[in-house]
Amino acid sequence: MAETKTKPTDVSVDAFLEAVAHPGRRADGHGLRSMMERVTGEPAVMWGPSIVGFGFSHYRYASGHEGDMCRVGYSPRSANLVLYTGGFPEYDALLSKLGKHKRSKACLYINRLADVDLSVLEEIIRRTYEATPDVSDGPVC
User: Where are the domains of the chain?
Assistant: First the structure.
């Protein structure tokens, strides 16, 4: 089985965010980092080459596939901000109040932080963090 590329690294989060080419996406990346650090109480850590993550969790699917991932995270991609927030059905009411966004099973896509209600986004981040199992003995970078 192939080894996952999405694992904590010792790459500087500051350096990664400063290298984001689009100035608006870079600013939003810094804003999300501050928000997520405040909401989770966790420091930002790079997961793989492009995910800024907070906390550590181990998952195992019914298929037997398992791995490690941050409890919450995001990536300031060229097309939009991708937030890894889980696919919890109880978010439907919150998402209806969030503002302009798209979603997939486990991701939330936002063009700009200015397009959404930041208090609703904080609540989604808080609920995701609390609902994702904590593994306190995860790897230390």
Answer: 13-131
